[in-house]
């Protein structure tokens, strides 16, 4: 049962931040303003497709609201991981161990910092609101 829940946590975080990293690879080709607009549209749209697929699936012992909450938690928890991985792969001087632990410990703040730095804040806000409100608009039947 715990593994099923971890799967949704991982699904939300990995899809959101890997898609962000893939779009960030276009930053040398596309102006940053256009890239921010693309991220604000594409990332929530991809998450909406996943939500639509999740809404049509059987519960598997985990309600739709719980699945979406876990996906949302994954997005917010994986923000510092994205910061650490990007620092290790891209920058000349990667962050140290103590700074990495600091970012993990303060994950909501670190996620906002990462989103502001990479231009994903719009996508983060739209996705957060979407995942928080979907269970209210599509309640599950209690049969």
Characterization of the model:
The chain has 143 residues and is an all-alpha fold. It has one domain. Helix content is 77%, strand content 0%. It has helices at 2-24, 32-55, 64-77, 79-89, 97-105, 107-118, 121-137. Helix 4 packs across helix 6. The longest helix is centred in the first third of the chain and has 24 residues, at 32-55. It is globular and about 50 Å long. The mean pLDDT is 86.
Summarize the structure.
The protein has seven helices and no strands.
Highlighted features:
77% helix; mainly alpha; 7 helices
Uncertain residue ranges? none
Separation of the first and last Cα atoms: 21 Å
Overall mean pLDDT score?
86
Report the helical percentage: over 70%
Number of domains: 1
Oligomer: single chain
For the secondary structure, the number of strands is 0
Number of helices: 7
User: How is the biggest beta sheet arranged?
Assistant: none
Radius of gyration: 16 Å
Helix-and-strand structural type: mainly alpha
Strand content: under 5%
């Amino acid at each position: 049962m715990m593994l099923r829940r971890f799967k949704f946590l991982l699904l939300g975080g990995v899809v959101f931040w890997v898609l962000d990293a893939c779009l960030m690879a276009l930053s040398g080709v596309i102006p940053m303003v256009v890239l921010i607009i693309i991220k604000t549209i594409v990332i929530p749209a991809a998450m909406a497709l996943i939500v639509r697929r999740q809404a049509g699936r059987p519960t598997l012992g985990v309600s739709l609201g719980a699945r979406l909450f876990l996906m949302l938690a994954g997005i917010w928890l994986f923000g510092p991981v994205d910061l650490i991985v990007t620092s290790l792969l891209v920058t000349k001087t990667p962050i140290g161990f103590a700074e990495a632990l600091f970012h993990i410990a303060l994950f909501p703040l670190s996620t906002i910092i990462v989103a502001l730095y990479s231009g994903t804040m719009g996508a983060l806000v739209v996705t957060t609101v979407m995942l928080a409100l979907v269970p209210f608009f599509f309640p599950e039947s209690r049969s």
